[in-house]
Each structure stands twice: as C-alpha cells, then as structure tokens.
Design brief:
Blueprint lengths: L7 H22 L9 H22 L4 H10 L4 H4 L4 H25 L1 H11 L14 H18 L3 H19 L6 H7 L6 H5 L6 H4 L9 H5 L29 H6 L12
Helix pairs in contact: 1-8, 3-7, 3-8, 5-6, 5-7, 5-8
GO molecular function: iron ion binding; oxidoreductase activity
Organism: Trichlorobacter thiogenes
InterPro entries: Fatty_acid_hydroxylase, Sterol_Desaturase_Related
C-alpha cells in the first residue's frame, strides 16, 4: 500500500508558495500578453481571496478530504476499499476520477445559473496571470470541497491519491492561468498531455462560445473526448478580451466587491 507522507499540509503549502513564486518570476521575463490593468490592485484582491478561502476552509471543514480518505481507508468504505484496489492501479484510477469530476463540476458551474453566480467571480479578472489561478469565491471553494469529499467516500480514494491530486490541481491551475509565453512548436505537443496557458486562456475570453470551452484544469483529454475543446481564440491571444462584458472596470473589482458578486442581480448569462 502506498503510504501518505507526513505533514501533507506542509507539503501542499511549500509546493504552492514555491511554484507561485517561480511562475510569477517567469511571467516577468517571458510574458505572453501585455497586462491591461495595474497588477498591484489585481494582486491585492486576488491574494486577499486566497487568504479568505484558506480561513473559510479551516473554519468550515475541520475534516478535509485527506483526513476523510484516511478514515474511509481504515473502515473499508468506498468502492476501491471494497474490491481491494490498491497501489498504482488505485493511484492512477483515483487521479483520473477526481480530475473528471472537477471537469464535470466546472461545466455545471457554467451551465446552472445559481452555480454560475458563484463561479463568475473567477471570470471577472481582466488580466490572466498566476494569481488568477487562485481567484475563486469562498462559497465555490466550499462547494467544490464537498463534491470532492463525496467522491472520496464513494470511491474509497486513498489519502496519498487525494494529496497528489490536490497538489497537481493547485499546480496546474496556477500554470494554466500564467501569463507565460511558451513557443508554439512546444505548446502544440505539450497540450496533448497538459493544459497549457494558451489552451486555458481561451476559456477566459469575453466571447460566450469561447468561455464555454476548455473546462479542464489538469488533463486535456476530457475536453477533447467530450466535445468542449477549442484550439485558439477568434481574436488571437494578444488581441482577445479577457473577462466578462458586465464587469469591465478594475476600479470596481476590489476585494470586497469580489465577495459580493454572487449576490448581485446582474444579468445571468445563458451557458451554451
């Protein structure tokens, strides 16, 4: 049986901070697009959201998915524990299942108006960079955690698999939101196995048909297999407009406004 390393939260935090700093530095030297708005205001809001999300998770979820996975494993709960799927088969299957669930969850958050109210805060960022990969409303984070915890219980996914998935999800979310220029010859092949910044940037287009595409965070296969893949934005990566039509003023997108967005009565977009 694959063993869970000690201090999983320390591992997650260390990798998160290290990769965040590395990508932020890379963006300075190899930017893909010129930034449209001042970074200091955006980063102040986005980092405030990171801190708030962490506090909400700590307060509302004394039992996190990794702890729940350990409890399920100890009590033989869930499909994998009942049919004794362990080791590498469980690790690979568990990672794929969790990744597919996050993909489907993302599509639902675009499709269902109530869920879109929670998710649209993420799409109000007028530029994309590494900080955008952490810009999710606390209510969306809480609901996503509940979905993952349900999956852990149903399938009996091991603690190590859950830890690896969380690390991969955080890392790929920061990477595919990064304002990072990758040579097109490399991007063409890399996006066959990983969601690249150019691939995910299409998802943040102001054009609804483009917003409703490229939903994956980690593996690119789900978009290709399930018909939601879009290769390039209509206006090109340097010419495309990022964000939503109804939120175009960065001066009005500070930290407190971001928290209020799910409760505002702005027109609800129709998912395609």
């Amino acid at each position: 049986m694959l063993q869970l390393p000690t201090s999983p939260e320390t591992i997650r935090l260390s990798l998160f901070v290290g990769l965040f700093c590395l990508l932020a530095l890379a963006e300075l030297f190899w930017p893909r697009r010129p930034l449209r708005v001042a970074k200091n205001r955006r980063w102040l809001a986005n980092i405030g959201i990171i801190v708030t999300d962490s506090l909400v998770v700590r307060l509302l979820f004394p039992v996190l998915p990794i702890t729940l996975a350990a409890t399920a494993q100890a009590n033989s709960w869930g499909l994998f524990n009942l049919i004794t799927v362990t080791g590498w088969p469980e690790l690979i299957a568990g990672l794929l299942i969790l990744d597919l669930i996050i993909y489907l969850q993302h599509r639902l958050f675009h499709r269902i108006p109530l869920l879109w109210r929670l998710h649209r805060m993420h799409h109000t960022d007028l530029d994309l960079d590494v900080s955008s990969g952490t810009r999710f409303h606390p209510l969306e984070i809480a609901l996503s955690l509940l979905i993952k915890m349900a999956a852990v219980l149903i399938f009996g996914i091991s603690p190590l698999t859950v830890l690896l998935f969380e690390v991969i999800l955080n890392a790929t979310s920061m990477f595919n939101h990064a304002n990072l220029a990758i040579p097109l010859s490399i991007d063409r092949w890399l996006r066959l196995v990983l969601i690249t910044p150019d691939m995910h940037r299409v998802h943040h287009s102001v054009i609804p048909k483009e917003t409703d595409s490229n939903f994956g965070f980690s593996q690119p296969w789900w978009d290709r297999l399930l018909g939601t893949y879009r290769d390039q934005p209509k206006e090109g990566h340097t010419g495309m407009t990022i964000g939503l039509h109804e939120y175009r003023n960065q001066q009005e997108l500070g930290f407190w406004r971001l928290l209020r967005i799910p409760f505002e009565s702005t027109p609800v977009r129709r998912a395609l």
